[in-house]
Amino acid sequence: MSAVFADTLYWYGLANPRDQWHTVAVTTRARLARVQIVTTEEVLIEFLTAMSGGGEYLRRTAAAVVRKIILERSRIV
Questions:
Q1: Domain layout of the chain by residue ranges
Q2: What is the pTM (predicted TM-score) of this model?
Q3: CA distance 16 to 62
Q4: Which position among 21, 28, 32, 49 has the lowest Cβ density within 10 Å, counted as fewest Cβ atoms?
Q5: Nearest Cα to 58, choosing from 26, 19, 22, 16?
Q6: What burial letters (b/e) apply to 41-57, b meaning 16+ CB within 10 Å?
């Protein structure tokens, strides 16, 4: 299985429908359906921090995304 690294921009764009990169992130995720997404704890912390300033909805969304990443055992290096 191939793997690709996901940085903060990817997670932020994927989770925030108002972000300028949202459509690109969603499209990319669909194209990478069979590719393992690899990220780091630092990226997830940065993602949570970036989303925390966007109000309750984005904070809850960010927390849910990170929980899902951890529960799905995505590769965190």
A1: 3-76
A2: 0.85
A3: 9
A4: 49
A5: 16
A6: eebbebbbebbeebeee
